[in-house]
Every structure is written in C-alpha cells, then in structure tokens.
Automatic annotation (TrEMBL):
Family: Belongs to the GTP-binding SRP family. FtsY subfamily.
Keywords linked to the UniProt accession: Cell membrane, Cytoplasm, GTP-binding, Hydrolase, Membrane, Nucleotide-binding, Receptor
Main location, first listed in the record: membrane
InterPro entries in the record: AAA+_ATPase (IPR003593), P-loop_NTPase (IPR027417), Signal_recog_particl_SRP54_hlx (IPR013822), SR_rcpt_FtsY (IPR004390), SRP/SRP_N (IPR036225), SRP54_GTPase_dom (IPR000897), SRP54_N_sf (IPR042101)
Domain of life the protein comes from: Bacteria
GO cellular component: cytoplasm; plasma membrane
Name of the featured protein: Signal recognition particle receptor FtsY
Organism: Richelia intracellularis HH01
SUPFAM superfamilies: Domain of the SRP/SRP receptor G-proteins, P-loop containing nucleoside triphosphate hydrolases
Coiled coil feature spans: none
Signal peptide: none
UniProt subcellular location: Cell membrane; Cytoplasm
GO molecular function: GTP binding; GTPase activity; signal recognition particle binding
Amino acid sequence: MDNIELAQTTANTSIDETALIEFDDGFIWSVEVLGSQGKRADDISIEEITWLKRLRQGLDKTRRNIVNQLKAIVGQGPLNQVAVDEIEAALLQADVGVEATDYIIHSLQQKLKEKALPPDEAITYLKKILRDMLDKPLKESGSFSLERGNLNIWLITGVNGAGKTTTIGKLARLAQKSGYNCLIGAADTFRAAAVEQVKIWGERSGVEVVANPSKNVDPASVVFDAINAAKSRGIELLLVDTAGRLQNKKNLMDELSKVRRTISKKAPDAKVESLLVLDATLGQNGLRQAEVFSQAAKLSGVVLTKLDGTARGGVALAVVQQLSLPIRFIGAGEGIDDLRPFSSYEFVEALLGG
Ligand SMILES: Nc1nc2c(ncn2[C@@H]2O[C@H](COP(=O)(O)OP(=O)(O)OP(=O)(O)O)[C@@H](O)[C@H]2O)c(=O)[nH]1
Ligand SMILES: [Mg+2]
C-alpha cells in the first residue's frame, strides 16, 4: 500500500472465508504480485487478494487491447515506423492520451535503440516506464497520509455521477477499519436525494453524517458545522461530499471555491486534501472537467473510479501526464470494499501482467 497508512487489513482469515476462495489463476497471480512487493505469505489477507483479482479482472479489456499487440511488437529490436504506429494506436485506444503515448513511445524507442530486448525484457522495461510515470506526481506532491491525532479534511469533488458519494462511503469504511475517528459532511445540498444517499453510506460504514435538512442550505455552512463537530469530537478524518451539478458550471465552481475557502479559514491547521473523482469509463472526456475543478477546489489528487470492466484503464496514465496530479485511490466496483489506495506497482501489473 503506497504512501498511506490506511487499512492494513488483518491477515487472520477464518476457515469459512478460506473455503470461499478459489485457487484459480487470478489467485495465484495476486499472491505473486503481493509476494514480489515483499509481502510474506502469512501477511497476505484475503481482502488484498480479492481486491487484486478484481482489479486485474477490471482491466481485462484494456489489457487484451494493448498488451497482446505490444508483446508482439516490442520484442523485435528498434521500433520501425509501422511498429510505432501500431503501439500508438493501441495506447490511444486504451485512452492513454496523446501526451502520455508520445512519452511512452519515446522512452521505449530510446531503450531499444541501445539494444534489442527480448519480448519479456521489453515488457519489463515498459512496466518500469509506466510505474515511473504514475509515481512522478506522487514524488512531487509529497507523501499522502492521514495524520493521527490531527484533523484531516478530504474534500471530494467531481461531476455528477462520477462516484463521489460512493467513494466517500468506501473511504469512510477504510478509515474506520484502520481505527481513525471519522465524520462525513453532507455538502451536496443541491440534489434532493443526496443527503439521504450519503447517510446510507454513513450507516454502512458506521460513520456519522453532519447534514442540514432545511431547504436551500449553503453547502459552506454545512462544512462550517461539520468542522465544528469534527473539532469538538476529536475527529481525525472529515470527508466532505459535494454537489456534481448545479444550475450551471459557474455556480458549481463558485460554490466549490467558497467551500474550499471555508475549510482554509475555519480549519487552518487541518491537513486538507482536495480530491477529484474521475469516472474511468469516460476516458479522455473526463479529463477536460479536471481543469475547471483544479482552480476552484485547489486539487491535490485524483480518485479514479469504475475501473471495473472498462477498456479505458489507460486513462490513469493520461491523468498523471496531463494533469500532473497523483492518483490517490482507485475504485473498481460498487461495493463498500471496492476501493484501495493506489499502487503503481499493482496497477501496472494488472494492466500489463498476467
Ligand atoms: N462499477 C462501478 N460503479 C461505481 C463505482 N463507483 C461508483 N459507482 C456507481 O456510479 C454511480 C454514481 O455514483 P455516486 O457515488 O452517486 O456519484 P456522485 O459523484 O456522488 O454523483 P452525484 O451525487 O449525482 O454528483 C452509482 O451507481 C455507483 O454505484 C465503481 O468503482 N465501479
Ligand atoms: Mg453524490
């Protein structure tokens, strides 16, 4: 688990759980991926295996699209124009984006000019290129952690339907399981059912929700109340849900800026993360929204959702290359446990390996 001290789940697995596990291909692959990160067999939890299997399965379509083509191409020495065109097409099809694709091809080309690599080594080298790309913004932005004993505020933003509220439920669960005191602020006051929805996630994760049931409430005032509640209760993580749609984009951005300012003013000592939730199935289209949010919410990272079953998993590379924002978490399913801190190693293995 990269850069975050969250949810080191227990390795103690009950007999019943073990019985449910299928020792299939995905299981063996997951154990290998965990093992190659230095995890000992008796430290590996069923949750970790289940998650990796899910991630690998989710990236199945993306992998099938690009990897088979790449494997056939990269093992043949320096790339000729036909090979470059083919790799380019495969990467673009996986929504890696023009910028990241150019960078990948250039790096690969440099290496292959030095010496011809057999296919396996070429793929290993490609994996390293991708990992380095994914980790670059992580290194620049410093570590991402939840400070124990301090107030951390995570502002969750993104367009409607991206998965903000679901992500809040999943994050609350992770934090709760890791022993952090957690609270949710229901600052999506625009959509009628939004507060009810976030309350349901609060119940599922066992985390309280601060909301204001009156009509036309200013979301900044909900955040104000939530910060007060967090301070008086010694909360360590306050998760703030926000609206994905208002009357128009300008209103949405004004509202977000106001919420962001309220957080800075009211909780100057808090460690604030402003996370943009991006729906991976939108591929490149999703990225365009990011620039607007970036200014209003002072983004510090991305949560990439819906990686289950999309052929556009390559968008993760576009995110880091085009937005220069680190990916903090990835979601691969609608269930409460279907979200984990982002690990470039696991992601690249799921994308290109197996
Ligand atoms: N398959 C899949 N579905 C997801 C994932 N994350 C969220 N969803 C689904 O996406 C839909 C929208 O999720 P919400 O959490 O309501 O999105 P939101 O951003 O809060 O939307 P608004 O409140 O309308 O702005 C729901 O049906 C979720 O179940 C994921 O990782 N995988
Ligand atoms: Mg929502």
